[in-house]
Amino acid sequence: MTESIPEAPDRKPGGEAEGDTAVATVPGTLPSDDGAAVGEGTASVAGEPASNGEPASNGEPASNGEPASDGEPVGEAGAAAAPDARPRRRLGGWRVWRWPVAAVLCLGLGTGTALALTAPPRTRLPGLHTAADGRWAFPALTLPTLPAGAPAPNSGNRYEHAADLRQLVIPAPTEAGEAGSGGGWYPVASFVQRFTTGSNRQKLATMLAEDGVRHIAARRWTTPDGTRTEVYLLGFRSEDSGSQADADLEGVSFSPPGITDLQLDAPDPQFTVPGVTTYSRPAGDGKPASLVGKLENGDIEVVVTMSNPHSIPRIPMEQTLTLENELLQ
Predict the structure, then answer these.
(1) Are 144 and 152 in contact (CB under 8 A)?
(2) In this predicted structure, what is the pLDDT of residue 217?
(3) Considering just the CA atoms, what is the radius of gyration of the chain in Å?
(4) What pLDDT score was predicted for residue 86?
(5) Which residues, 6 or more positions from 33, have their beta carbon under 8 angstroms from its beta carbon?
(6) What is the distance in angstroms between the CA of the first residue and the CA of the last residue of the chain?
(7) CA atoms within 13 A on the CB side of 12
(8) What is the C-alpha separation between 151 and 313, in angstroms, rounded?
(9) What's CA 218's distance to the chain center, in Å?
(10) Going by C-beta distance under 8 Å and a sequence separation of 6 or more, which residues neighbour residue 28?
(11) Distance between CA 230 and CA 221 in Å, rounded?
């Protein structure tokens, strides 16, 4: 391309050229209509700002002191992206600890829930209360202290009790309150007098003497529903004499006072205590309902009687015999 240089304007005496601005062209540029060179490598002369007040095209700050463009350098190859100056979030520590913390929280929640369910009594938990079925609330059973050197009743080949017979009588239930006796010895003659009449008295007295009865312990109580309960433990010389007495009682008319028509009950398949025999009669003819149960436990014969003006549920009798049998074990 041929370089063209415009003719020099007429100068005034002061050396200043006519016109506002002198424009110098460089190779490869063409002058514009307003006297400024356009194209590649264009530059303004005499330190004047660009014609439109925008930053210079070479990326240098404009003459008014404001940064060029948006503060990003501009070159022939285009604008380069500035690195991200925001601080990075450091999550390494939390990522390491979040699962152990979650496990500890779950463990604490599970432990708290378990304690909340197991600490209170079952009957106080919603939905777990057991409907009353007629059972009595007995105190905790306590085994008596054996004499020094005496064996336990279920040790060895002989099933005999060395403990004080009075301490082996089941305690009265809490429902009885003050209506329960403390228990103690009961004379053999009084037992015969209470449970037999007429000629049966002599028969029972002779049988007990021959079988070797040593003494009788007893306790009685009355519950708020009017049921009167009496528990008798008859202690014999040995396990053999106790077994003989259990069989002999089957042949004696044996019943509570005023009751002469007790009937033998059929075995209850739900009653798990072995060797239990029960007799009963319903209320009527001016007589109360009566229930008599007996069982043998080694050298001890257990007799339990219940009476009520109206009726007697079976569950209290089975409960009483079961707990007495456990205490004698």
Answers:
(1) no
(2) 94
(3) 57
(4) 60
(5) none
(6) 129
(7) 5
(8) 38
(9) 42
(10) 1, 39, 40, 41
(11) 7
Q: What is the dihedral sign for C-alpha 193, 199, 204, 207? A: positive
Q: What token pair was written down for 139?
A: 């105190």
Q: Per-residue pLDDT tens for 41-76? A: 443 434 444 444 444 444 444 444 444 444 444 444
Structure tokens at 272: 């798990």
- What digits encode the pLDDT tens for the residues 188-201? 999 999 988 888 88
Tokens of 122: 């079952």
225: which 2 tokens?
Answer: 């529903």
Tokens of 234: 């008859």
In sequence order, what DSSP letters do the residues of 143-204 get, joined into one string? PPPPPTTPPPTTSSS-----S-GGGGSPPPPGGGGGGS---EEE-HHHHHHHH--THHHHHH
Calculated CA dihedral for residues 266, 272, 277, 278, nearest 10 degrees: -70
Q: Name all domains of the chain by residue range, CATH numbers in brackets.
A: 1-70 (no CATH), 165-328 (3.40.1000)
Place of tokens 């002469």: 260
Place of tokens 């739900």: 270
Nearest to 295 by CA among 270, 315, 272, 277: 277
What would the two tokens of residue 160 be? Answer: 């005999």
Place of tokens 């020094």: 148
DSSP 8-state symbol, 304: E
